[in-house]
Amino acid sequence: SLKGKGLVLANGEFGNRLIEQAKRAHLNFDTYKKEMAEPFIYTELEKIMATGNYEWLWFVHHETSTGMLNNLEELNILCKKYQMKLCVDCISSIGAIPINLKDVYFASGVSGKAIKSYTGLSFVFHNHIVKVNEAVPAYLDIGMYEENESIPYSHSWNLIYALQEALKRLEDEEAFEKIKEAYAYIEQAINTMGLKLVSPKDHAAQIVLTIQLNEGQCSKAVGDALALQGYIVHYESAYLQKNNWIQIACLNHYKERDMKRMLNCLQMCVLKKVLLT
């Protein structure tokens, strides 16, 4: 349903992956790219959109590679102004923060991540009628689902039921507040250690902390050391190791004593300067 030329935005690992997906789908598009963790400049972007060359725009809402939250509201306003269809990757923001997708053309999500159900289901939200597209596999054809007004093919009941149960947690906004509280607690401790967060504070999603380790330290060595103590942080992805970053996700409801113990272990790694292995 994306006809005409589009614009794909990227300022992190997952924005870069959108570009790769757009290539694989043979979409006609240009890119607007910034460095990792560099915010989009919306006045600059507007000049590009004002040329009238584009019919749609696709971007990542919560760029988890850096912990940055890209401005959905601002992009929504710009897309309305220039009559462009707004498409949003919400995979890491659905279930972590309140989101309004009222005027979005397409949005994607998954059952894992912040919703915290089992991985295995994907969602495509749309505000228009999608026609059957015989050029794609039937199981992936959103138009078939739309036409049948149901799920026309077999899905795992276990995954559906688990998702239904997981969504009950989000009926109360307290779930979002607990994520923010955990983020604030860990953020303060990270700053006290003298470590730097990758995302600028004003643009942080307050969901995932991406931490830049100091020179002479190794993200893999620190991650391995924490794992030996029973604390699993994110550090094994290629882009994390390349940039010497580790990540702490605040999506689970951690007890304060557990956060303290994990942070004490991290501080010991920093003080001992866990070096390259």
Automatic annotation (TrEMBL):
One of the GO BP terms on file: glycine biosynthetic process, by transamination of glyoxylate
Coiled coil: none
Xref: Gene3D superfamilies: Aspartate Aminotransferase, domain 1 (3.90.1150.10), Type I PLP-dependent aspartate aminotransferase-like (Major domain) (3.40.640.10)
Entry-linked Pfam families: Aminotran_5
Cofactors (names): pyridoxal 5'-phosphate
Keywords for the protein's UniProt record, in alphabetical order: Aminotransferase, Pyridoxal phosphate, Transferase
Domain Aminotransferase class V positions: 44-128
GO molecular function, one term: alanine-glyoxylate transaminase activity
PANTHER family for the chain: ALANINE--GLYOXYLATE AMINOTRANSFERASE, AMINOTRANSFERASE CLASS V
Protein name, per record: Alanine--glyoxylate aminotransferase family protein
Organism: Bacillus mycoides
Lineage, highest ranks first: Bacteria, Bacillati, Bacillota, Bacilli, Bacillales
